[in-house]
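Course assignment 3, question 2. Fill in each field.
Student: A.L.
Task: Predict the tertiary structure for the chain below.
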Amino acid sequence: MMVAAVTLEGRHVRLEPLSRGHLAGLAEVGLDEELWRWIPTAVRTREEMAAYLDTALNEQERGTSFAVCDR
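Answer field:
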């Protein structure tokens, strides 16, 4: 089965295919320690976020990752 990347937009958020272009925004809001409190692998630096993003992009090829963007 072929799954195509699509963007879904609603009143409050937009779901869009994850890309390396999201790194700056992810690093800006995603390095808060509280976000990683219950996750086995914490992301604490921009470099760790880049590695985390690379993993997510690999998973995206299987249709399992997307970005949630505040409108």
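Instructor remarks: The mean pLDDT is 85. Residues 46-60 form the longest helix (15 residues).
Grade: pending
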